[in-house]
Recover the amino acids of this structure.
């Protein structure tokens, strides 16, 4: 069964840090482009960061550049999102996505991140 499971979300104060993890199983992780997305209440889902199959190239949405870092470990079938200097506007449900070479996407169930004092 193809599956992505996110973890690491929680409640953090502004300026704090969190590290999200996404564990993959049931499909070819190493041949998938991986990305993190988020959806705040009442808003559409937006891409936060993505990383190529071999991990050599990453891209970020402007609002998180310099604060978030995406990485992957193909030996562990996992992708991570290190988040620093968190702001209230980062509050959202965070999802990881696997984009397979055949054009099919796999989504995780999401993990809640709340930034609040």
């Amino acid at each position: 069964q193809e599956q992505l499971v996110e973890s690491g979300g929680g409640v953090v104060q502004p300026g704090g840090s969190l590290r999200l993890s996404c564990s993959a199983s049931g499909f070819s992780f190493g041949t998938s482009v991986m990305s993190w997305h988020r959806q705040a209440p009442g808003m559409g889902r937006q891409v936060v960061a993505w990383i190529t199959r071999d991990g050599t190239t990453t891209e970020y949405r402007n609002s998180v550049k310099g604060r978030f870092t995406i990485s992957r470990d193909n030996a562990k079938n996992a992708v991570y999102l290190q988040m620093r200097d968190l702001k209230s506007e980062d509050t959202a449900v965070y999802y990881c996505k696997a984009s397979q070479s055949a054009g099919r996407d796999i989504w995780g169930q999401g993990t809640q991140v709340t930034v609040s004092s």
Notes: The chain has a mean pLDDT of 97.
